[in-house]
Amino acid sequence: MSEVVEVKVLSGEGWEGLRRERLLIDGIEAMNAGPLSECPEDAILERDLYGPSDFAGILEAFLREHQGKKVRFIYEEDTDE
């Protein structure tokens, strides 16, 4: 088991030409955010986006699971879009 946790933020453009981001923790997607352009009439808070309570829960679980490990942050362009 590695003593370094890899937290990666992938940023890129979707099919509609707007920015999207994905957060991966040790290669597993934990969160993604994209534009609400495909259905703007349904664009309400937390439809496609996480809210503060979701983020706090993810952070709490992360700290519990990876207690005492070093964290490496990586930011790169997403080529999967």
Automatic annotation (TrEMBL):
**Name of the featured protein:** Uncharacterized protein
